């Protein structure tokens, strides 16, 4: 299944517009979710069930994304950390900095 997912991401999404792409596969629904950072520093999400991209955060700063314990995490250069659940992309602020 991993090869099929990678092939689908490469063919449908193209890698030229992304800095980083992180997929999460849901065994129960046989769907996947993707979080990505674009070359324009946009934070994007994609759900295979919806088959469209959404922007999650304005490109006000560089963003680093990772996957931990089945959730996506995004950290910006100011130290704000946001957790996104992969099914609905609801956000939970894990840590923030007061300016």
Query: Order of strands in the sheet with the most strands?
Result: 1-2-3-4
Going by CATH, the architecture would be Beta Barrel
CATH class: Mainly Beta
Give the rounded overall mean pLDDT: 80
Count of β-strands: 8
Our measurement of the CA-to-CA distance between the termini, rounded to an integer number of angstroms, reads 45 Å
Structural class: mainly beta
CATH fold assignment: Thrombin, subunit H
Number of helices: 1
Protein name: F-box protein
Descriptive account of the structure:
The chain has 99 residues and is mostly beta strands. The protein has a single domain, classed as Thrombin, subunit H (Beta Barrel). The protein is 12% helix and 49% strand. It has one helix and eight strands; from the N terminus they run H-E-E-E-E-E-E-E-E. Strands 1-2-3-4 form a four-stranded antiparallel sheet, with no helix packed on it. Strand 3 and strand 4 (52-57) form a beta hairpin. The chain is globular. The termini are far apart. Residues 1-5 have low confidence and may be disordered.
Structural features:
8 strands; globular; mainly beta; 99 residues; four-stranded antiparallel β-sheet; Thrombin, subunit H; disordered N terminus
Topology:
Blueprint: H1 2-13, E1 18-26, E2 31-38, E3 43-47, E4 52-57, E5 63-68, E6 71-76, E7 81-84, E8 91-95
Antiparallel strand pairs: 1-2, 2-3, 3-4, 5-6, 6-7, 7-8
Brief account:
Helix content is 12%, strand content 49%.
